[in-house]
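[recover] target loaded
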């Protein structure tokens, strides 16, 4: 609770006992002071204001030049004061603490506006850590900078997958070994049948004894390769807690 009135001071217009709860300032000076509540320091006239001879009071109500007060504030003790003793508003340690706290909070909020993203090594919600804002967890995604065109040109767009199974159109161009069943005569006729392969442009028909024979090409087939499973689609990563300020 900061006191907001520059150079607000006066003198007691009546003595104040150590148990009194009403303070009277000089006629017309009440308007110099802010609206209650605020703190005042009362000090003896013609002396340095020190803790041993002064008192801080809390003004809880103000009526023209008459103040209702709560005694012995901020570590001081209640004392008796005389007519003409000094009454002055001040800046106290707690005021400075409040100002510092408010300034830090304002600076943090300015540095972390709505849309700000923070990465943390602890699971604590930033609203608890920083004391402001509504924060939403970002889970299971990495962040990429927005582009002016292309895949990443829409703010907050999502996409991608942890694993992916290649489509035929995505496979590299390649060839397969091809095998041909050949028959000497009609399929199944005699014992001269076997398998040919293409090597350096030559074609050979092997019979069951391993001898090369002429023949006719029959059914073709390709030897299958691969299991058709999905592959890992992840970049190297480290897992942290990611939060976005949404309000």
């Amino acid at each position: 609770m900061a006191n907001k009135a520059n150079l607000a001071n006066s003198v007691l217009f009546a003595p104040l006992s150590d148990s009194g709860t009403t303070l009277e300032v000089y006629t017309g000076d009440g308007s110099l002071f802010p609206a209650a509540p605020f703190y005042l320091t009362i000090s003896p006239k013609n002396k340095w204001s020190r803790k041993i001879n002064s008192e801080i009071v809390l003004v809880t109500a103000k009526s023209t030049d008459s103040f209702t007060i709560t005694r012995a504030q901020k570590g001081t003790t209640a004392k008796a004061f005389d007519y003409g003793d000094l009454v002055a508003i001040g800046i106290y340690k707690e005021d400075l603490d409040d100002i510092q706290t408010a300034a830090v909070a304002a600076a943090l909020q300015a540095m972390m506006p709505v849309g700000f993203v923070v990465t943390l090594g602890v699971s604590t919600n930033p609203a608890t850590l920083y004391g402001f804002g509504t924060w939403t967890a970002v889970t299971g995604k990495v962040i990429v900078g927005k582009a002016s065109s292309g895949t990443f040109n829409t703010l907050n767009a999502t996409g991608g997958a942890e694993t992916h199974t290649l489509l035929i159109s995505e496979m590299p161009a390649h060839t397969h070994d091809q095998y041909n069943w050949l028959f000497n005569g009609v399929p199944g006729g005699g014992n001269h049948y076997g398998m040919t392969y293409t090597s350096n442009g030559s074609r050979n028909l092997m019979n069951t004894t391993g001898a090369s024979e002429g023949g006719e090409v029959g059914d073709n087939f390709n030897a299958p390769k691969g299991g058709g499973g999905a592959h890992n689609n992840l970049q190297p990563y480290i897992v942290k807690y990611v939060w976005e300020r949404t309000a």
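[recover] notes: Confidence is low (pLDDT under 50) at residues 182-218.
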